[in-house]
Design goal:
Blueprint: H1 12-16, H2 18-39, E1 69-71, H3 86-90, E2 96-102, E3 115-123, H4 132-136, E4 142-144, E5 159-160, H5 162-174, H6 199-229
This protein binds iron/sulfur cluster (SF4) (2 copies).
One iron/sulfur cluster is lined by residues 81-87, 98, 117, 136-137, 139, 141-142.
């Protein structure tokens, strides 16, 4: 429904505009003086509204930031991935390809599970960094790290294979940029359903009625058969 337009009544000062222009200029000068003063302060980022990237890399990244992918190793240095393919199925951009391999005897120190990923590929040009692969992984093997400098010169460089993914993990570990492991969420059993008064008696009544109807139809059929036999 259309709403009536109510025209605001301006004061004489507002209609002249001069006062409003002066107010606007005062605000502009206030910010200008503040920034000039701040630029002389010691510190890596001198102007508070600007970060001098890439010279200044001291800015903290949000703990929930989703950056470059990595394939994690467990505390014994074994590959966590069991090639279940859940991440590939979950990925909305269909940019993950996993091929599985079976662990042989003597490879227990390399792979944590009986199955492992023989190849693991991610096409970063399709990835939307939604993090669903990370959420879906039952082994916390694939993780989106904190690396944010993703620009490359060729398409090939935007293709992550298993070796690059493992290298990303090792690099993040060396630099101390690994995320802390996720906290296990305790499974709370569902509360028992409240009993509805009279619900059980109603159900038995319905059942009784159904049995009676069945009996009556059987009787009618038998009577019809007897008649046709006469
Ligand atoms: S972050 Fe999202 S789009 Fe990228 S690989 Fe994982 S699930 Fe696919
Ligand atoms: S990364 Fe996780 S979800 Fe993906 S195949 Fe490996 S174990 Fe399965």
């Amino acid at each position: 429904m259309a709403r009536p337009v109510v025209k605001k009544k301006y004061t004489l000062g507002e209609r002249i505009y001069l006062l409003e222009i002066l107010k606007g200029m005062a605000l502009t000068w206030k910010h200008f003086v503040f920034n000039v003063k701040a630029s002389f302060r010691p510190g890596p980022h001198t102007v508070p509204t600007c970060w001098q990237y890439p010279e200044d890399r001291t800015r903290e990244i949000s703990p929930v930031y989703r950056g470059l992918h990595m394939l994690c190793l467990d505390e014994k240095g074994r590959e966590k991935c069991i090639a279940c393919g859940t991440c590939a199925k979950t990925c909305p951009a269909h940019c993950i390809t996993v091929k599985k391999g079976k662990r042989k005897e003597g490879e227990e120190d390399k792979y944590a599970g009986k199955m492992y990923c023989a190849s693991f590929d991610i096409d970063l040009l399709h990835c939307i960094f939604c993090g669903l692969c990370q959420e879906a992984c039952p082994k916390e093997a694939i993780v989106l790290g904190r690396e944010f400098e993703l620009a490359q010169y060729t398409r090939e460089e935007c293709h992550l294979d298993k070796q690059k993914l493992l290298a990303n993990y090792r690099k993040a570990k060396e630099e101390g940029k690994l995320r802390p492991p996720r906290k296990a969420v305790p499974v709370v059993p569902a509360p028992p359903k409240p009993e509805v008064k009279g619900a059980s008696s109603k159900a038995t009544e319905v059942k009784k009625g159904q049995v009676e109807v069945k009996k009556a139809t059987k009787k009618a059929k038998n009577a019809e058969k007897a008649k046709s036999g006469d």
